Amino acid sequence: MKKMHGIISPLDEEHTHKVKKIWQRLDEKCGYTEIASTITPHFSWAIAETFDWLALKNTLEEISEEIPPFTLHTNGIGIFSWVRPVIYIPLVRTAALSKVHQQIWTRVEKLSPNISPYYAPKNWLPHISLAFMDVAPDNISCAMQELAFETLHWEIKIDKISFTYRDDADTKKAYHEFKFRGNK
User: Fold this and answer.
1) Residue 43's closest CA among 125, 143, 134?
2) I need a surface site. Which of 75, 83, 84, 176 has the fewest CB within 10 A?
């Protein structure tokens, strides 16, 4: 697996537990194991192969001082289709959430020469990943049978922004967290 850096917001304790239970069910019933390599249940603001870590650390500290904790909502289940589909829980993209994303994106995009365009404001589809990399034609129906009739309408408090890192050999993961403290 290639090196990856991510700017994420981890879920609150209640929803971290719920997502981990879904991951476990999908592992046991469908054989989805790759998601376990995820550092924690979260949604991503931006990802890239590299970031200028020192500049990013300072930027995330500044951002965390400006943005207050907020609540977001989920709505159902989705699939990003491609060679290796991603099964996810979509987040409701409100004007307020889009404004926070734009604020973050504008400040971090210049800190990486290879930031993913899928996370640019015009393309960003905020979501919580449930399965990826091991989703295949012969097992995708298993996940749909497990999840399609579940109510996945959640209200989640978000109070942090984090930076994660995975190296080429997947031997080292780092996690740096900054609490939202803004007073808007």
Assistant:
1) 125
2) 83
Q: Which of 137, 138, 128 is nearest to 77 (CA)?
A: 128
Give Cβ neighbours of residue 32 (< 8 Å, ≥ 6 apart).
23, 26, 131, 134, 135, 139, 143
Question: Using one digit for the tens of pLDDT, what is the confidence trace for 86-118?
Answer: 999 999 999 999 999 999 999 999 999 999 999
CATH topology of domain 4-179: Cyclic Phosphodiesterase; Chain: A, (3.90.1140)
Cβ contact 170:151 at 8 Å: no
pTM (global) more than 0.70: yes
Cα separation, 77 vs 149, in Å, equals 10
Phi and psi angles of residue 145, each rounded to the nearest 5 degrees, phi first: -65, -35
The sheet carrying 173-179 orders its strands as 42-48, 4-10, 160-166, 173-179
Coil, helix or strand at residue 47: strand
